[in-house]
Each structure stands twice: as structure tokens, then as C-alpha cells.
């Protein structure tokens, strides 16, 4: 079963080719790390998959339905995006902010149900923010606000999660625990994740498939077999060494 399918996708923006002839299938249980240097178009790709910007040629299918024909509300039940960064633009409590993730599931002119409140509080508890439910988001630190944004996505409960640098602003312990929570939720819903990473080791730890964007439209997609020093050095333009550690290994730059 394909949750997300790309067929000969080409994306261009401001005269730059992000990808050319990108063809791949995302299935339940897939956790895809998107890796590449700054400026190659990782965020542009994610926004395109979320239906937020047009693409040049090719097809994007969500549950075998063309993305171009899906209504926004239905799309939000299938797919959710965590943006790279955002600001608390207006005063709202933490709980009110997380409840916005439930809006795709609430009938027009309807109100949040007890179930919506319960799901939202469970999401806050999962990221360690339930005790701050009544705090205004304008009073939060960057890391706290990031956890609220992640909780809102978890409350939305889409089968496809698009994550733009999900560990931005998070302390190392929260980076690990929240990525573990996201993986657990994705597995529970038989879903998939596509996440932009800058940390090769986090990507290798939490993902099982990898999309490399080299620039000029060139890309590589595969499982752990693509995690080689040669490909990673070509991707990041610097020496990279694989160091054995326990039953696995980690990557060191330089």
C-alpha cells in the first residue's frame, strides 16, 4: 500500500532545480530522512509534498489520490507538516494551540469534543508540556514552543508526517525522546514520516530510508545501503568517517 507516491516529479523555484524525475513510493512504516546541503531545496520539496506550492511536472499521489484534486480538509486528515520554525503570533494558551491540530476532524461549525481535549492533553504529555497547558505561547522559550508545535501535529494524527528539522531548538535529551514518540505514533497509525535532518547520526538512528538531494535536480533514494562515506562526502562536500561503536557505528565529519 502506497501512502505517498511521486512519479517523475520535477520542482523548480527561482531558476533552481530542486529535483528532476523524482520517482518513489512511501509505505506504512517508512521513515525517510531527507538530507542535503543548505540551499538544495529540502524545505521546498517538503512544502510541495504538503500541497503548499506548485510543482513543474509529474504527479504526487496521497493514498493513490492525486494531490492536486484533494480538498484541503481531506488532505489535512492524511498529511500534516511541522514547519522549520514559527513564532507565537498572537496570545493563545498551549492547549488552545494544540487543539488546532484537531480541526480537520471537527465538523464545520462544530466545537471541540471531550475526545479532542483528551487527545490534545495526551499529546502535550507525550512532549512533556502538559503542566504548561494554560500558559500563553508568547511566554514560552524556543524549545518549549517547538514541543507545542510537535504536540499539535501529534494531536492532528495524520498518517503522513512531514517534519522540517523536527529537533530545532530542542535540548539533546528532548531530541531523542520526541523523535522516539513520533516514531511510536507513526507506527501506531501505520503511517510514515519524511523528515529533514542535518545530523547524520540522528537520521541513521531513527530512519530506515534516505533521500539525498545533491543539487541541480540530482537525487538518490534508498535504504541504509546508501549510507556510505563516499555518498555522504559527495552530499556534504567534506570528509566523513564511519566509526564502529557497539553493534553499529556513528559518523564523524572532518
Automatic annotation (TrEMBL):
Coiled coil: none annotated. InterPro entries: AAA+_ATPase, ABC_transporter-like_ATP-bd, ABC_transporter-like_CS, P-loop_NTPase. Pfam families: ABC_tran. SMART domains: AAA (SM00382). GO terms for molecular function: ATP binding; ATP hydrolysis activity. PROSITE patterns: ABC_TRANSPORTER_1, ABC_TRANSPORTER_2. The keyword Lyase does not apply. Residues 4-240 form the ABC transporter domain. Keywords: ATP-binding, Nucleotide-binding, Translocase, Transport. Part of the ABC transporter complex HmuTUV involved in hemin import. Responsible for energy coupling to the transport system. This is Iron complex transport system ATP-binding protein. It comes from Candidatus Kentrum sp. LPFa.
Amino acid at each position: 500500500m502506497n501512502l505517498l507516491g511521486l512519479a517523475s516529479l520535477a520542482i523548480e523555484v527561482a531558476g533552481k532545480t530542486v529535483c528532476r524525475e523524482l520517482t518513489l513510493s512511501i509505505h506504512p512504516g517508512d521513515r525517510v530522512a531527507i538530507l542535503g546541503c543548505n540551499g538544495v531545496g529540502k524545505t521546498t520539496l517538503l512544502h510541495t509534498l504538503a500541497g503548499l506550492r506548485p510543482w513543474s511536472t509529474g504527479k504526487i499521489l496521497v493514498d493513490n489520490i492525486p494531490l492536486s484534486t484533494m480538498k484541503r480538509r481531506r488532505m489535512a486528515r492524511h498529511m500534516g507538516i511541522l514547519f522549520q520554525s514559527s513564532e507565537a503570533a498572537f496570545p493563545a494558551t498551549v492547549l488552545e494551540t494544540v487543539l488546532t491540530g484537531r480541526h480537520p476532524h471537527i465538523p464545520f461549525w462544530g466545537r471541540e469534543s471531550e475526545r479532542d481535549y483528551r487527545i490534545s492533553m495526551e499529546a502535550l504529555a507525550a512532549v512533556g508540556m502538559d503542566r504548561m497547558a494554560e500558559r500563553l505561547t508568547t511566554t514560552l522559550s524556543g524549545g518549549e514552543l517547538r514541543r507545542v508545535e510537535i504536540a499539535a501535529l501529534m494531536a492532528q494524527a495524520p498518517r503522513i508526517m512531514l517534519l522540517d528539522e523536527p529537533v530545532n531548538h530542542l535540548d539533546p535529551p528532548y531530541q531523542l525522546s520526541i523523535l522516539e514518540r513520533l516514531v511510536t505514533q507513526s507506527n501506531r497509525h501505520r503511517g510514515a514520516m519524511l523528515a529533514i535532518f542535518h545530523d547524520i547520526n540522528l537520521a541513521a538512528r531513527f530512519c530506515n530510508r534516505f533521500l539525498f538531494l545533491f543539487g541541480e535536480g540530482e537525487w538518490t533514494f534508498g535504504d541504509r545501503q546508501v549510507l556510505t562515506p563516499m555518498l555522504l562526502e559527495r552530499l556534504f562536500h567534506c570528509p566523513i568517517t564511519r566509526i564502529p561503536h557497539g553493534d553499529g557505528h556513528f559518523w564523524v565529519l572532518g
